[in-house]
C-alpha cells in the first residue's frame, strides 16, 4: 500500500497518470459541476465552461476521505467529488486556506 504522507508522496500521486485519468472520470461523472453547490440547490455556473472549454481551472476533484489517512481510497472514484474553489476551501478549513484576502489558486498538488 503506497503512503501519501509527505509533500513529495502527494506530489508524485497528483502527477501520476492514474490520478489524472481518474480525476477526469470524476469530472465527467459529476458533469463538471460542484457537487456541494448542487446539494445546496445553488446553480453554479462555471464561467470558463460557459466560454466553451471543457476543462475548468475552478473545479477541483476532492478526496472525501483524505488520502493521507486513507491511502487505499486514493484511486476509488467513489471517494472523489467535484467541488468548486469556494466549496473546496470549506472542506479544508484546518489547512488555513482562505484566511487572508489573497485569492487562492488551487492546483492538484493541494488536493
Ligand atoms: Zn461549490
Ligand atoms: Zn480536497
Automatic annotation (TrEMBL):
For this protein, the record's PANTHER family field holds:
HNH NUCLEASE YAJD-RELATED
Protein's UniProt name:
Putative HNH nuclease YajD
What GO molecular function annotations does the UniProt record carry, in alphabetical order? endonuclease activity
Kindly name one Pfam family recorded for this protein: HNH
Q: Which family does it belong to?
A: Belongs to the HNH nuclease family.
Superkingdom field: Bacteria
**Keywords associated with the record:** Endonuclease, Hydrolase, Nuclease
Q: Can you give the residue ranges of the HNH nuclease domain? A: 21-89
Amino acid at each position: 500500500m503506497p503512503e501519501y504522507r509527505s509533500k513529495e508522496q502527494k506530489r508524485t500521486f497528483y502527477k501520476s497518470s492514474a490520478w489524472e485519468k481518474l480525476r477526469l472520470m470524476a469530472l465527467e461523472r459529476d458533469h463538471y459541476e460542484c457537487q456541494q453547490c448542487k446539494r445546496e440547490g445553488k446553480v453554479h455556473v462555471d464561467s470558463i465552461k460557459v466560454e466553451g472549454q471543457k476543462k475548468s481551472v475552478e473545479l477541483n476533484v476532492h478526496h472525501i476521505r483524505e488520502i493521507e489517512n486513507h491511502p487505499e481510497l486514493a484511486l476509488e472514484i467513489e471517494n472523489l467529488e467535484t467541488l468548486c474553489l469556494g466549496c473546496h476551501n470549506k472542506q479544508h478549513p484546518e489547512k488555513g486556506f482562505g484566511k487572508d484576502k489573497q485569492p487562492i489558486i488551487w492546483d492538484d498538488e493541494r488536493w
